[in-house]
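Quick question: what would this complex look like in 3D?
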Amino acid sequence: MAVLAYCITETQPEITAPRKGVRGTAIETIRIQALQCFASQFDPQDLVGKAPIQEAALDFNRVLQELLQQIAIIPVRFPTILADETALSRFLTEHQAEYSEALHRLRNCVQMEIRLKMQTSTQPPATSPKSGAEYLRGRQAQHQHIDSIVARFREAAGPLAKQWRHYETAAGIRCFALVDRNNVQAFLQQMQGVSVPTESEPRVTGPWPASEFLKE
Amino acid sequence: MPQPSEDLVIASADLDQEMTLLDILDHVLNAGVVIRGSLVISLAGVDLVFLGLDVVLTSVETALRHMRTPLSNVNPSVPSSKRSPQ
């Protein structure tokens, strides 16, 4: 039968798997050496044929969050359904070394996210520049503005952020901090003190699985 | 102790502040590994406006991000776009 994969963790006998998965399915573990993957036997038709798919996505997130509270996880993108457990085992075997290294490195860590809305290079300027030089000056000023705001958050995070990444999107800037799970509260308190322009609508969320830090 | 910023929204389970559905959907749809050879259910036509819009937005965002990444740096197990069904 097809399986819906949730996430990959290190093999830890003391982990308590959530009682129910997406659409009330039972959750199983598939172990390959030092890794285990949490998954449910799943009929793909159940995803689209029953309750709204948002409910399934929320169930999926609940499973991830319950596991994340106990251990570092590598989430599998929703909805990923494989033909059977053999296909999932094959994938785990192929990536065993890569994911074992990542989970060992990210042990006790979670990801916090800061999202800022602002004009970026992926958006057209509000007014057309009169010359190429004016355009370049505008872009330079824009980047300096963005960098200064990102720097405020990064400075506030200080050593609480073990690693930091940010990139531009069509909607603005997304910043990611790798934080020790014991420091989440301290990190949030530091973020509360950051002064930012109102129009950037800053939003801090987390803790999330450290998806942005799977690669060093 | 820093003074709270009035403009900053913090949504964290650790502060008993609910994350929005959009926060959650963005992460479960847009973050994490994609397994090669997996069957990804098409979301077209399902729950129409909200989820459909989010899927498009996050996919475009991811695609744009990886367009700026040299191919040699792309992790083959974390592709920018969803896999085609088998």
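Answer marked as accepted. The first strand of chain A starts at residue 3 and ends at 10.
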